[in-house]
Amino acid sequence: MGAGGERSAGECLEGLAESLGLGPLRPSSEEEIPSRRPEGLDAARAVREARREREERILGVLEGEA
């Protein structure tokens, strides 16, 4: 715990992972990620779609303000 008894962000995330039954968190290198990704999961495509949707929402809000 930090000064004054507060928990660090890392400690909070570790506690959350434990409460969700995810086990201990450990850092991953970029080389490890593709080998551990489930087959059939196209993360790059999913990220692109999420970014595009977020951009569309932001632009829609900004255009509505104009």
What can you see in these coordinates?
This protein is an all-alpha fold and 66 residues long. The chain has one domain. It has helices spanning 9-19, 32-36, 43-65. The mean pLDDT is 75.
Order of helices and strands: HHH
Structural class by SSE content = mainly alpha
Q: List unreliable stretches of 5+ residues.
A: none
Could you say how many structural domains there are in total? 1
Number of strands: 0
Can you summarize the main beta sheet? none
- Quote the distance from N terminus to C terminus: 47 Å
Instruction: State mean pLDDT (0 to 100 scale).
Output: 75
Helix content estimate: 55-70%
The radius of gyration computed from the alpha-carbon positions, rounded to a whole number of angstroms, is 18 Å
Basic shape: flat
Strand content: under 5%
Number of helices: 3
Question: How would you summarize what this structure contains?
Answer:
The chain has helices spanning 9-19, 32-36, 43-65. It is mostly helical and 66 residues long.
